[in-house]
Design the sequence.
């Protein structure tokens, strides 16, 4: 598989002396969906800003489709790598939403008809048709998040980099956004890199996960990362709620070696269990059940969400 993004020994220090990244190495293959998870201040945003040349470090290298970003102009980089900022106010700056979405394609030198077509398509996909003349700064936060994605999608980049795309969205908008990102990846083959705290969305969003805490701490499938409880605790990361529920069920005698990470996996697991057990799921309370549940609660106590 072709490498879309290759990062080698990347170090970054802000001008005030804050060391944000240390020896980061990463490879993202074309067509992959990769999530980067890590606590606040871990360097996720700093890292993403290197992927489209906003930040540039003299220590280490970032390559996009084999070309070192140090060797190309930013205008060239943004054709391939579209970055959706964590804060939508950093993305939207024109008087109308149309202008914001048209800005990128116009700078690519596309004809007016094609620019209009791209703007229309992006707005439709994000449910923002009819918002063309709205002032971006007067949109609600959720609308701004979607508008920022639309502004980047109108560029049709081969690699889409998203910083906390689901933060502060209502449940429907969050689900829609997850669906749109997956569809872009599956239908158009867009490579996706997402930094997120939304662990419940990671299994659906990503094929592979990197844990970043200044340096790369771990890499693997969601299953691997989210079953390593010590790793999660050490990096202040949540466990998906559905996994916690199945751990509770285990205390009640439910048999499950691999904890489901998403509703889909849970349905699959439950269906299999019902089939194997002649149409039933057997749960029971035994002598130690409540002690086990108590232990489980204290295991998750540092997250204080139980
Ligand atoms: N412009 C800046 N100048 C100095 N330090 C900065 C600057 N921007 C970020 N930092 C510091 O760099 C570190 C990494 O910040 P960054 O925003 O990359 O983290 P993050 O993982 O994206 O966090 P969050 O989950 O809160 O978004 C933090 O310690 C932060 O305070
Ligand atoms: Mg951030």
Sequence:
């Amino acid at each position: 598989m072709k490498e879309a993004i290759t990062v080698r020994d990347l170090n970054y220090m802000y001008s005030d002396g804050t060391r944000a990244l240390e020896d980061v190495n990463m490879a993202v293959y074309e067509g992959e969906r990769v999530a980067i998870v890590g606590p606040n201040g871990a360097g996720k945003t700093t890292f993403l800003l290197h992927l489209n040349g906003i930040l540039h470090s003299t220590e280490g290298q970032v390559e996009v489709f084999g070309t070192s970003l140090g060797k190309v102009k930013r205008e060239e980089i943004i054709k391939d790598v579209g970055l959706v900022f964590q804060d939508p106010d950093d993305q939207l700056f024109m008087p109308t939403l149309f202008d914001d979405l048209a800005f990128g394609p116009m700078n690519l030198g596309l004809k007016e008809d094609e620019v209009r077509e791209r703007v229309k398509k992006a707005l439709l996909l994000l449910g923002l048709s009819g918002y063309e003349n709205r002032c971006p700064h007067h949109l609600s936060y959720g609308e701004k998040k979607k508008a920022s994605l639309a502004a980047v999608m109108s560029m049709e980049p081969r690699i889409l980099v998203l910083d906390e795309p689901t933060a502060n969205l209502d449940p429907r908008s969050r689900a829609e956004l997850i669906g749109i990102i997956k569809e872009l990846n599956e239908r158009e083959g867009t490579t996706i890199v997402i930094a997120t705290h939304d662990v419940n969305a990671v299994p659906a969003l990503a094929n592979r996960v990197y844990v970043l805490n200044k340096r790369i701490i771990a890499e693997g499938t969601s299953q691997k990362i989210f079953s390593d409880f010590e790793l999660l605790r050490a990096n202040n990361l949540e466990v998906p709620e559905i996994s916690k529920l199945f751990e509770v069920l285990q205390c009640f005698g439910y048999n499950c070696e691999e904890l489901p990470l998403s509703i889909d996996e849970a349905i699959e697991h439950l269906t299999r269990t019902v089939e194997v057990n002649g149409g039933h799921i057997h749960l029971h309370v035994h002598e130690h059940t409540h002690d086990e549940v108590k232990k489980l609660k204290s295991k998750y106590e540092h997250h204080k969400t139980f």
